[in-house]
Amino acid sequence: MNWITLLALYFLIWWTVLFIVLPIGMRSQSDDDHVVLGTDPSAPTRFRPLWIWSWTTGISLLVIGAYYVVTEILGVGLNSFPNFLPGIR
C-alpha cells in the first residue's frame, strides 16, 4: 500500500473518530446549572481539546494499524470473501 493512500485513509479515520470521541464526557452548562449570560445553555462547561485530540489520535492509530495488519500482512481483501451474487465481481 502506498504511504499517501495510508495517510489519506488515516485522515478519514481520524475525522470519523473525532466525531465519536467529541461528545464523550461533555457536560453542558445546563447540566451543571451554571449558564453564562449570553451563551447557549448547551455549550460545554469545560472544553478539553488536548484530551479529545489525544484520544482521537490514539484510537485512529489503533484502527489504521489493525487495517494495515489485516490487509498487508494477513492478505485479507475483497477477493477473500465468497461471491454471494453470481455475475458480480
Describe the structure.
- The protein is mainly alpha-helical and 89 residues long.
- It has a domain at 1-22 and 50-75.
- 49% of the residues lie in helices and 0% in strands.
- The protein has 2 helices and no strands.
- Helix 1 packs across helix 2.
- The radius of gyration is 20 Å and the shape is elongated.
- The two termini are 22 Å apart.
Average pLDDT, to the nearest integer?
Answer: 90
Low-confidence stretches: none
Tally the beta strands: 0
Written as H for each helix and E for each strand, in order along the chain, the element string is HH
Number of helices: 2
Beta-strand residue percentage: under 5%
Distance between the termini: 22 Å
User: Would you tell me the structural class of the helices and strands?
Assistant: mainly alpha
Q: Quaternary state, please?
A: single chain
Round the Cα radius of gyration to an integer and report it: 20 Å
Helices and strands in order, then pairings?
Layout: H1 3-21, H2 49-73
Key features of this structure:
transmembrane; mainly alpha; single chain; 89 residues; transmembrane helix; DUF1467; elongated; Membrane protein; membrane
Question: Nutshell version of this structure?
Answer:
This is Membrane protein. By secondary structure, this protein is mainly alpha-helical.
